[in-house]
Write a structure and sequence with these properties.
The complex is a heterodimer of chains A (125) and B (330).
Chain A (H helix, E strand, L loop, with lengths): L2 H9 L5 H7 L4 H27 L3 H17 L3 H15 L6 H26 L1
Helix pairs in contact in A: 3-4, 3-6, 4-5, 5-6
Chain B lengths: L21 E5 L3 H13 L3 E5 L2 H9 L6 E5 L7 H11 L6 E6 L4 H9 L4 E4 L4 H33 L9 H18 L3 E8 L2 H8 L1 H18 L5 E4 L4 E7 L3 H15 L4 E3 L2 E3 L3 E8 L8 H17 L5 E3 L2 H5 L2
Parallel strand pairs in B: 1-2, 1-3, 3-4, 4-5, 11-12
Antiparallel strand pairs in B: 6-8, 6-11, 7-8, 9-10
Helix pairs in contact in B: 2-3, 7-8
Classes of the chains: A mainly alpha (125), B alpha/beta (330).
Amino acid sequence: MTEPHLSAAKTAPCWKSTEALKLLNGDSELLRELCQIFLQESPKLLQSIKQSLSDKDADGVMRGAHSIRGEVSYLGAPKAVQAAAELEEMGRGDNLGRGKEVFSILERELEDVHIGLQNLMGASS
Amino acid sequence: MDLVGTKDTIPTSEASSGLFNSVLIAEDDPVFRHLLQSWLKKWNYRVVTAENGLEAWRALQQKESPQLAILDWMMPGMEGVELCQRIRSAGDTPYRYILLLTAKDHSDDIVAGLDAGADDYLVKPFRFEELNARIRAGRRILKLQDDLLRAHSSLEFEAAHDPLTGLWNRGAIFKLLQKETQRHLRTGTPLGVMMADIDYFKAINDSYGHLAGDAVLREVGSRLESVIRGYDSVGRYGGEEFLILVPGCTLADLALSAERIRASLGSRPIHTDYGEISMTLSIGFVASYAECRVETPDDLVRLADAALYSAKANGRNRVEGASHSLAQTR
């Protein structure tokens, strides 16, 4: 079940700024600012989701995943959005059975996004 | 007369000028907060930010807080939907326009948000231009609401005031008399009523013209207003007749007060574009009090009118009180 995800993540380009820029009306300065905040904030959110998962706190998982989903939806990272959405639904349905599994996908996707973002920041500064 | 308010329109892309240019953002997510803030500032809105629902609620209690609020659906402390409900149950006037932001795409949630009192919603990720257009739509609604309130209060004023003098009109002063009579009968505090009439007003109109007559009426109205006490009321009852309500005043005080008004009104000529016009006032008054009660507003007016008639018959420029026996006939 997770195999296709994994291989897809490795082969497809992990992050493109074009989608994000389209949403932001081409404002690359704003994109950089948002990326900076995201790079600071998302590790905290991931940490809180992880904590909620081990506490079996479905509401906490839902909220954390919801925030991540909102943020990555702006940064043009569809796979991370998908994983976060899945996790959010699990939290909402109080069904965390596959929580850790989906969380690790999300974690991996975000890692890729981080690398992409850092490249962008490095390239344009 | 402008019943539909000001004609200024809302600019299509900028909010630097015009109404409703401040926006409250309630958003716990720092990425979104920054995004919204930066867009709104670009469009020249004044931005107030809150990091959770409770903070937003407090911000909205401040004086001159924004009438436009962008609320995130899911926030710690108080969620967007609950905040919507609170704002609506507070029944704020002027109206607050609420735009709910949601990353959800479940239509059930959207229904719940709108039912809670949101005016509109946006699903994340929304585009730059879409948010701008939705806020403009919100400002249009606020502008309409504002025009409506202005028109309403202006109509309310016109319905109760005499357009020439700005005093209460006949209907409004009579309503006030009804209220004062009820209060008087309930509490027993005395109630005085005066009917004042400009002497030889027809002669003023005939020799100076009707516009001069209007100027005299306006000046008499303003002099009457300045000479009565704060809790007295004066209205234009008819052509050159004024009804004055004087609550909580003994008969002796009422007589003094009527005399003071008469003397003060005629003390100096009225300056008009048509020349200096001298005029005098005749006043009839009646008091209702424990030993001598007048039970209805109609009787009070009738008795004040009769006293005014005596003042006219006895030579004008004088005051007359309704006789006790006359009052007691009812």
